[in-house]
């Protein structure tokens, strides 16, 4: 079966148009203000937004994901199913790495081998084997029929075998790929400087020089924009939106975010920050906590209306979304009912636990954590706030954790498929290689595991969707995690900067222009 662009919500039309012209002007430059510095430049060392933004400037994947989550040819120009579990990818000719070396099938094989042994092995969890048929053809076999493989491959960025073997553990400091930009300089916590790669296979970028400035303080980020230090800022503070709108020469641009702010509840019998038995093993306590959180007030008061309550764990556009189900309609804000549930569970007097959260990663994250403490106190759940910068946070909460009982974090699913989230966040830990690695609450439900296995064992998208919807229904009933809201992605730019925000929030200079 040839690669089908008709796969519902998974693959887009065959026409995948390059977004930049080959006639770049060398004097065009941009400075972009980010909320934080990248953590890594090695795409197999970890995931977080600032690092991801850098990855997609420097590297390419076999499958390209566009700004609206449509999937099409990347380093692979085409692919087809040889049988239910065997995919054959034809690679583009004439692609070179930044050092001039030719991109070959052996680089894909090296990348997958290294990925399987890395912290990001979950990206290849459904891949059983792979081999190079020739220099332009790669065969990938899955353990079972698996419809979402091309989408998964959009998150696997291809490395140069020769370069990685040459630099070894220094890849983080010396990244090199086939992407539209090359790293010029990385001064930690100050700047990342990129320049366009003039040998890029889709044509040189229009913007030749790009500098990313990590500016963690929202007020400082706004000031940097208005004084001309930067041309674009990510995550404009909600309190500054009107101020920027009212200033001549600047524009505020928003779009609904994929990032779902969620609260993971530990369901182990003994939880690290709770004295005695863990009350959150009782579903009634989890429901009480959900009902005690006033999401509309968080949106109105803290987010200035620039957030959308999360109906489920993934957006409506995604495979696995359950039509008509809404978490916050199932468990509306109701403190009295929450108190009744606590009493029914035998914990009317409440308990104390620690909330781990960032103070510089999500929009108004510290203020949201403080609001949660105030709201949950009304049902005698006392939160001790453990707030930290994101540079410390993701290592601190890494699974398996002997430190965390309650975690506030964000999760987005740019693959357009709930399975990529469910398999790592809700599958029983330690039961199946490549699954459950980010199961922060130690949730385990055999029915969920079985349904995810079924979803990952069919080549038909419709069947996969049905299985994942069944998982969604169980999760909404079990409440292993409380979805709070989707942020609004808020950007501001000076006049003359042409860009359209991406659904995945990756600021990609290759899609931008400067028109002074």
Can you describe what's shown?
With 516 residues, the protein is α+β, with helices and mostly antiparallel strands. The protein has three domains: 25-59 and 179-249 and 495-516, Periplasmic binding protein-like II (D-Maltodextrin-Binding Protein, domain 2, 3-Layer(aba) Sandwich), CATH 3.40.190.10; 61-178, Alpha-Beta Complex (Dipeptide-binding Protein, domain 1); 259-487, Dipeptide-binding Protein, Domain 3 (Dipeptide-binding Protein, domain 3), CATH 3.10.105. 26% of the residues lie in helices and 23% in strands. It is built from 15 helices and 19 strands. Strands 1, 8, 9, 10, 11, 12, 13, 14, 15, 16 and 17 form an eleven-stranded mixed beta sheet that branches. Strands 4-5-7-6 form a four-stranded antiparallel beta sheet, with helices on one face. A two-stranded antiparallel sheet has the order 2-3. A hairpin with a 5-residue loop joins strand 2 (63-65) and strand 3 (71-73). It is globular.
Summarize the structure.
It is built from 15 helices and 19 strands.
Task: Spell out the key features of this protein.
516 residues, alpha+beta, D-Maltodextrin-Binding Protein, domain 2, Dipeptide-binding Protein, domain 1, Dipeptide-binding Protein, domain 3, 3 domains, eleven-stranded mixed β-sheet, four-stranded antiparallel β-sheet, 15 helices, 19 strands, 26% helix, globular
Blueprint of the fold:
Layout: E1 29-34, H1 49-58, E2 63-65, E3 71-73, E4 76-83, E5 86-91, H2 105-116, E6 127-134, E7 137-142, H3 149-153, H4 161-167, E8 181-187, E9 191-196, E10 209-214, H5 218-226, E11 232-234, H6 241-245, E12 250-265, H7 283-292, H8 295-302, E13 307-309, H9 327-330, H10 335-344, E14 351-358, H11 365-377, E15 381-388, H12 390-396, E16 406-411, H13 419-425, H14 446-455, H15 461-478, E17 481-494, E18 497-498, E19 513-514
Parallel strand pairs: 1-10, 1-11, 14-15, 14-16
Antiparallel strand pairs: 2-3, 4-5, 5-7, 6-7, 8-9, 9-10, 11-17, 12-16, 12-17, 13-17, 18-19
Helix pairs in contact: 7-10, 14-15
